[in-house]
Amino acid sequence: MRKNKHGFRKPFVMKKFKQPEEQPTVDPITGKKIPKSFVFSRGKIPASLKQLQMDLRKLMLPYTALSLREKKRNNLRDFLNVAGPMGVTHFFILSKTASSPYLRVATTPQGPTLTFKIHEYSLAADIARSQLHPRCPKDLFKNSALIVLSGFVRGDLPLQLTTNMFQNIFPTIDVKTVKLSTCQRILLLNYNKDTKLIDFRHYSIRLQPVGVSRRLRKLVQTHQVPDLRNLQDVSDFVTKAGYGSESEADEEAATITLSSDLGRVNRASTKSAVKLQEVGPRMTLQLIKIEKGLCAGEVLFSEYGNTGGKEKSDEMEGEEDAEGQKEGEHAEDSEDEDEDEELD
Amino acid sequence: MAEEMAMVESGRARRKFVKTQGRKKSSKKGKVMPSPHGQKKVKIDKKMKKLFRKRAREYNSDDEEDEAIVTAASETRRLASVTNKNNEEDDMESGDNQSEDEGAAAPLKTSNKNATGTNDHSSDDEGDDGNEIQPGITKFTEGCRAFKMAFRNIMKKSVPDDMLGPILSAHKKLVIEKLGEEQAEHNMKGEAKKEKQMLAEKGHVKPAQYLDSHEKFLISVATKGVVKLFNAVNKAQTAQKGLNPSRNKDAKEIRKRAKQAFFSELGKPSLPSTGTSTKINEGTGKVEDQQPAWAPLRDNYMLTSSRLKDWDKMPDKNVSDDFGRTSENSSSDED
What we know:
Chain A: It comes from Vigna angularis var. angularis. The complex is a heterodimer. Chain A is an alpha+beta fold. Chain A has helices spanning 2-8, 47-60, 76-86, 124-130, 157-167, 214-222, 234-239, 248-251, 310-329, 333-343; strands spanning 37-41, 90-96, 101-107, 113-122, 146-150, 185-192, 197-209, 255-257, 271-291, 299-302. Helices cover 29% and strands 24% of the residues of chain A. Among the domains of chain B are: 31-156; 228-329, no CATH class.
């Protein structure tokens, strides 16, 4: 009996845990350092901001910690300690005060830190809800986004710093070797001179062949049997012109000729139209402060007048003190937590 | 002394005897009980007792005029107990009968059993409980006219159609006040919650279903940037089509071409309105002139410092040039 029982038992197999692939710190072709980022929050933030944090992480994929867990007792130093060995170069820190939410973008380990006030924001889910056909292809987040900065004024030092900062948050692309199929999404930062606000938008890029009727395009793309009920002849399906969309006129400016095939539809040496559809978070930012260090140090620029003024420096000292106390309290814990995060 | 001792001893013995007797009795009872029917009976009996006692109490509290009924109730109780005993006996008998039935299944005996059933208050056929309570209840309800009258009176009363419903009159104001307070508190809580929610959702905007002009403008800007980049990529990649930069031979070829392109670019007058991406291309081309294409073979591999190192010093020429263009035509810069 016993033997029988054992005979039917499922053999015990050790589960092989798949080691996450080590991400390269250096681009294999261009040889430039790949920037990596942490997106996290300081202090207590409401659920919608947590969602925004998640959206930002997705935007920063693949070179970010998507499931970074932060604890209440983690202080900035903890993140900094982890950032070094993991090659993290940028921090995105969300925080919230009574007046409004804030986003700090900092380079590690020395800074500078840019503090943005988030005037308005919409989550990726909100945007998807507002669209008739939200689009999210499988490999949308497999490659890092492109970045387009526009409207930033020359000669303005803080703005220049902002552009520099944002140019370096994504890996450099080499024009000679880059594959266009990896360019799936784009981050746009548009500076408005009059309002001094920065529009932060995230779009997905789609290429469509030009000069082909919508029906044919759909047929090729989806491989589904078309509806021919209303047609007299099969040839009508090809010849009958569909109604043109309003954006047809704009398309001419947005056409490109491809050098190589891109997917099933976009063939080499045919014209393709670039179509953008919004994904991801939408924000309206205002640059309010630049600090020399990482969330500390000399204030180089402040929106509210007194640059490096007395009040600001006092405030900074106070913050530093608070940070120092925290460190003192959790000096023992910090190492353990570091390990935790690495495991995550 | 000895006598006394003996007396005492005898007393003790007597006591002991009594005790043992009592114990024996109890043990006897215990021994008697274990039959399944008997146990059940006992349980029901206790319940009955409780029920009857309760009824009697209620009755007493109701009005103490008719003591006769109380006595009657007690009588019924006694009666019930008697019937119970009878029942017990009956059950025992019936059990025996059943066992016999199982053995022989003779029609005569079953008829006999039926006869016994009819003889003893016909309790066996129906459930034991219902039948036993019945007489008590009937008597009780018959006797209680006052209760009936009171109930009828209550039912006759027309209740004013009030939101609060029927309330003892003295507390009417108090209840209203209390309800009002509750409502106010609830409102306060709701407001506080709403306020908190508002604060948490500050800045959170649900986008409109349509694209407004600003969004369209932004999309067009982004599209321009993408088109510029893609065109630049195509321009660069058509030139080196069919060449693999990781192969040594091809790399040489690429370098040659880049050199040519670079020199041809030098010969031209500088054009400020070329694409940003192409400009990057030139920059990299310069580096690649003397050095192998594959990055790890270069001298400055991994030594290139980040641009942000000296960001607060004077901006270098390259960057300033870049800005000139961005301000002009809001172009893109892909890095």
